Amino acid sequence: MPNWKKLIVSGSDAALSSLNVTNAVTASFFVGDGSGLTGITGGGGFGFSNPISMSSDTSATAGNYTSIHGPIQINSNVTFTIPATAEVKIETF
Question: Which domain covers residue 49, as residue numbers?
């Protein structure tokens, strides 16, 4: 008897009960507040979390608006790049 696998076709509206990924996940945007995320370190996982410590080079996404709510620390020899078409708001408290 064949062992059938489900196939998700590009452009379809798939509903999955779980998804295991062994590599990076990328998207044009993510939805949700991120409150259940774990294993995120500064330098790549910033925005709407406190405090923020950037420990590796990172950049804002061109053409997007990024809001960072501080306090924020950019470690020595770390570069935070803001492309000309990006908007970044840093609000410390």
Answer: 39-83
